[in-house]
Amino acid sequence: MEERRIAEKQEGGFIYYSWEKPPTDKISPKVSFIIGIPEWDWIIGTGVYLDTVDEITAIEVRKIYKALIFQLIGLLLFITLIFLFIYTRFKKLSETVSKDISIINNCFSKAEIGSEPFVTQKLKYNEFSVIAEHANKMISRQKKAEREKEDYMIRLRLQREQSLLAYVDWNFDNKIIGWNPAAENIFGYSQEEALGKNFDLIIPDFEKSDVENLFQDLGGKINQAIHTNLNITKDGQIITCEWYNNNLIDDSGNALGITAIAVDITEKLRRQHEIEVKNTQLGKSIKEKNILLQEVHHRVKNNMAVISSMIALQSNTITNTHMKELLQSSQNRIQSMTMVHENIYKNESLSEVNVNTYVLELIESLMQSFDLFDNQIELNIDVLDINLELDLLIPLGMIINEIVSNSFKYAYREEKIFELSVILKNIDSDKMYMNISDNGPGFNDDETEAKEGSIGLMLIRGLVDQIDGRLEISTEDRTVYEIYF
What proportions of the chain, in percent to the nearest 5, are helix, strand and coil? Predict the structure, then answer.
């Protein structure tokens, strides 16, 4: 029944029981493994008597103990040999390592005293040679750092000694503990006379309270301060110095004292005062000159206006139409120059006039002179909004006056809308281009030849030469004047 119960388990199992042991017929304990095979409806098992296992195990244990004893004896012998070999090698290695370590220790001792490099050729082991090489690099860097530090300290000392600026060091008892040659030159006291003295050595009585307050602030509230105050020299002179004060703080945050750099600015202030006085006088002179120039331009404008009025009065007494036209032309020429001086008088600049404003006013003045109105003329004015100097603007204005006057005089027709175009633009940084054209009938070669001798065209060509320009005239579809200057 126990076998059947175990056989019902898929994985099978063990059963323990007692059974007759052949050939002794003695009842002995036994263990069997049972597994079932359902598809055959079989139970298969196999077993062993436990006392047989104990006997076999005892025999095998005795064999193992015997073999183990022989193995232990052999192992002890092997370990003893290995130990002797290692001891011998270690002793030799230890002697060699001790020698290398001794060399390195001696080198480190010498390096600490005199920064002598390691002699790597005496070392037997590569590891110690590597250490020695790195140590030599460290010593080299240390030597370089020491040289740089020494150079820096020398430069720092020379900077203080040779500086044109006064270096003064104070402690928090307001005692002078540092005094360079520049301080001797500025204040007159030698280093022996200044060291250990109170700050009031160079501070006049009326400045002492302010300086005391500053020193108190540097001791607690602030770390840096720039101030200007009066100082007194050894011979009693009062000078003005600019001070740059700095509270010295070490790496632990402890305040060590105050170092100050002083600059004597007495002479600088005196020169600044002189310059301010001169600038004031110069400004006054320039203002007076500007007023005078404005007055000159105003009077020139007035004088030209008087001349223009006299020509107009003279024109009213003449009945000859040709003579009237000649006087009108002269009056327009004078008016073109008058307008330049009038614009200058109005402007802040006394040397330049806005060309766009000037051309618009000139065209408007000419239209009034010829009794023309906006509804009779289609204007195209495209002029740069820039300022031009008088030497260029006056001849340019007279050129525009002559060409536009000729257009109104010879090209204008009442039966159609009259078109007038004035263009002024830049070609590049130092060249300009002006185009004045109308839609009048133009003139033929005979008329051109006749006009070549007219005073108007002579004026135009002369004025173009005056501004180093080039004139081109075209009369194919429209009358076009092109000027490059």
Answer: 55, 25, 20
